[in-house]
Amino acid sequence: MLTKPAEKYRPFPPVDLPDRQWPGRSLSRAPIWCSVDLRDGNQALAVPMNVAQKLELFQALVNCGFKEIEVGFPSASNTEFAFNRRLIEENRVPAGVAIQVLVQAREDLIERTVESLVGAKKAIIHLYNSTSPAQRRVVFNMTRAQVVQLAVRGAQWIHERLPRLAGTDVTLQYSPESFSATEVEFAKEISEAVMEVWQPTPARKMILNLPDTVEVAMPTVYADQIEWMCRHIRHRDALIVSLHTHNDRGTGVAATELGLLAGADRVEGTLFGNGERTGNLDIVTVALNLYMQGIHPGLDLSDLNAMRAVYERCTGMSVPARHPYAGELVFTAFSGSHQDAIRKGLTEWAARSRSAWDVPYLTIDPRDVGREYREVIRVNSQSGKGGVAYLLETEFGIELPKEMQREFGPIANDRVDALGREVTGAELKAMLWKEYVERDAPYALVDFRAESVGGVVRCQATVRRDGAEVSLRGEGNGPIAALVHALNTGGAPRFEVADYREQALSAGEEAAAIAYVRIKLGDGRTRWGAGVDTNIEWASIKAVLSALNRC
Ligand code: KIV
Ligand code: ZN
């Protein structure tokens, strides 16, 4: 890297808009969405989608609720043209959905583009040419006036051919490509020149798309550019102002959101942000950002996993694990304190009759987008006892007593730490079983009988101690007390039972009960034990022996 980057790179000049209004506004409704997955997204793929993949993605976009879908660049290749024709001739475009096609300001390309749309019910013809100083100089080698003339000629060639699409509801769209790198005054001049040809009205608007083709500045600058255009352009009321951001500085979503505050009506983007270089705007993120503010985006994102699967299948791209809302790990907490807060938050939310969502660390309820609570908490060495207890409870219905959680949490953590990876609920349960339920040395239960005579319970227990069977007798006010007496008089360390809980385990192979016992030794130490059996009395006896075996 350069020690003096200023010798090579210059800051982007700010827009002169001291009375900007957008910072004081907030969003209250969803914009018009236009998916450009099949065009901008597709052209950025190492292996572009084949027709079957394009058709599948088109259907998924329709199902999601997109009413405007840029389907391609029909003049660019026979495949693109054929795809357009197939959509129209096979009647695959539902009423109310407009297919959008992109074209440059060249007569032969415009001719072919119009031809590709014959028979469509609703279409958007999208004309573009680049306008930034670098593009004018390097690509076109044209003056500003020549570039305006190029756009005007393109607009005329389209306008002249509209009678050929007599049965089609056509909307016209113009993009001064690289708008955000263009002087605002020139963007206004060229856009107004195109408007002059197309003559939009408030009743028959045209779309003016203002692309952030390459992010060159902070999103606040883009917002200023959009507000400047909305306030200065002639006949604003005859325009649908549209945003088309990319993500070069990682702020495509922010630029779109601020651009909406600045007065735009429409947003172009792709699912999960596929697109050239760092991608197009991710529509899913912007839509769910609105949703989490209580604004319905007008798109159905209630099965995000399915949508992600279609996207991955069709594009060959993958959604990163940390991607907002859709990433594998988004609703997963690894840190113990996060897990604890989420658990308390979910419990409190349920207790508040599921009113306004305010659960720490979860921006939205995962179930609203078809994801699961089960994904919320996994356990690794960073997790605390809360995560361990949550997983045992949600996956197996095992409700460890709070004090036992404190004992088992660090034990589980040490084992997970040694494994050096995340563990599943089943692995945690196996650890619990190994530590408590399967502890059968030195004492293992062979037989236990108890009878109550005159309020006193007498027991006869047969245990295997260090491999040899031993018969013990004792009495007390219940079976557990009788066993403790039998053990204490039969040579075991002296102890008493300090805590006892039991619960039924959920149905399944172990349609059984689990008992938890905490014993207190003569020297003050305490230990938990657990026993499982289809007979609750046996479960509690096993729990006592388990605790004793852990001393
Ligand atoms: O990024 C861009 O500017 C484009 C235009 C064609 C709208 O994709
Ligand atoms: Zn683009």
Percentage of residues in strands: 15-25%
Helical/strand content category: alpha/beta
Shape: elongated
Instruction: Count all strands and give the number.
Output: 14
Q: Identify low-pLDDT runs.
A: none
CATH superfamily of the largest domain: Aldolase class I
- Classify the fold: give the CATH topology of the largest domain: TIM Barrel
Task: From the alpha carbons, calculate the radius of gyration and give it in angstroms.
Answer: 34 Å
Describe, in short, the structure shown:
With 551 residues, the protein is an alpha/beta fold. The chain contains 17 helices and 14 strands.
Structure in words:
By secondary structure, the protein is α/β, with parallel strands linked by helices. The chain folds into 3 domains: 32-315, TIM Barrel (Alpha-Beta Barrel); 336-435, no CATH class; 443-549, Alpha-isopropylmalate synthase LeuA, regulatory domain (Double Stranded RNA Binding Domain, 2-Layer Sandwich). 39% of the residues lie in helices and 20% in strands. The strands form 3 sheets. An 8-stranded parallel barrel has the order 1-2-3-4-5-6-7-8, surrounded by 8 helices. The chain has a 3-stranded antiparallel β-sheet with strand order 9-10-11. A 3-stranded antiparallel β-sheet has the order 12-13-14. Helix 6 runs parallel beside helix 7, helix 12 crosses helix 13 (385-396) and helix 16 (479-489) runs parallel beside helix 17. The protein is elongated and about 105 Å long. The mean pLDDT is 95. Bound molecules: 3-methyl-2-oxobutanoic acid (KIV) and zinc ion. Zinc ion is lined by residues 40, 211, 213, 244, 246, 280.
